[in-house]
Amino acid sequence: MSAKQNEGVVAAQDEAGIPGILVGVSVDGKEVWSEGLGYADVENRVVCKPETVMRIASISKCLTMMAVAKLWEEGKLDLDAPVQKYVPEFPEKVYEGEKVTITTRQLVSHLSGIRHYEKDITKVKEEKEKANRALKLTKSHQDKEEKAKEGKGTENTGCVKQKKEHDSEMKSRNSKPGRNDKEFEQEEYYLKEKFESVIESLKIFKNDPLFFKPGSQFLYSTYGFTLLSAVVERASGQKFTDYMLKIFRDLDMLSTVLDDNEAMIYNRARCYIYNKKGRLVNAPYVDNSYKWAGGGFLSSVGDLLKFGNALLYSYQAGQFKNKNGKLLPGYLKPSTVAMMWTPVPKTEVSWDRDGKYAMAWAVVEKNQQCGCCRQQRHYASHTGGAVGASSVLLILPEELDPEAVGPWPVAPPRGVIVTIICNMQSVSLNSTALKIAREFDREKQAQCVG
């Protein structure tokens, strides 16, 4: 690991005032960097280490998607059937006087119309309209810039892109973490009730009206994943939590567990926020049993790298020659992961303007519009924000040449995976993760050339 690679994480920690941060990187399936910086427990001066476990927040959605995909492959779950086929406890819905259907496919891409934490439908629609207007203005400005550049001849836009990324990230960092995110003003973020089952937790939102017609608009919803957990439970014939723990064992993710306040969980970090006076304090007590699927798991960077590599291996396995049957099958079929990582129309991604939401993943597609200009690599990512925690998991697959992929021992996974977790809420980590991934990818390419 170079000083430059470490610099990005240290800068993010220092500038955002994060008590503790974990970073993990793997290249071609091998863990090359796993480190803890700062404190897992500030009061008792317990330092972070690679084995430290923290809240992974919405990366939990990616783990849940693995379960959905497995059940779909096994023919136990129909992505396009009404959710009531599996969960009759969830009432049939009507939108503007018309009976509508919610499917599992819509749930995993946030197209169901089910609300998030904000209950006021008027506020949500106003925010959506405001965001859409801002997006149109941004695109119009970008189009004008592109036309101006074309008039001046070929120009490398990489520096412009990097400056915009830097300005955006600095703006995010200079605002105090743990305080300014409007989402954390919602009361339901701080639920303290312990729910004994995922079916029971449906009562929070199941009788609320839909905010949009299913399939018509994107509305990020953790409650949509609470309903999804009930679908998984019924399709699998097991308790949702038991089925997920089985998957974690299959993937050798032995440090990934439920964020259960009562359980003795070794190496668990404490969570922190900044109060109104800008002082570091312990995060308020919450019980995340109402959202296991959408934001209720704890994990380590080592486990998240294993998870990412299992997906990357599955995605690429079909592109390698299986000499003498030595190449084992992936946990999922290549076509399944390809489906999961295919951008879905009408979706958007708050943490990456180049991306679209797919199935529980944000995906940026390979793209280059002009010669000698910025090349957009294909990658998948998900960020997370929880009370007292922030996270990111990013997978940058190697661009494989079908002609160049030879026989064994060259084998999947091929690419860079980066994960960062910290015990402070409202910290933007996606840009840092992408920079780290690109740096390791450049180093790998340089070694290949050398």
From TrEMBL:
Residues 140-153, 162-182 have a biased composition (Basic and acidic residues). GO terms for biological process: proteolysis; regulation of lipid metabolic process. One of its GO terms (molecular function) is peptidase activity. Transmembrane segments: none annotated. One of its GO terms (cellular component) is cytosol. Residues 133-182 are annotated as: Disordered. Residues 12-126, 199-424 form the Beta-lactamase-related domain. InterPro entries: Beta-lactam-related, Beta-lactam/transpept-like, Mito_Ser_Protease_LACTB. It comes from the Eukaryota. This is Lactamase beta. It comes from Serinus canaria (Island canary).
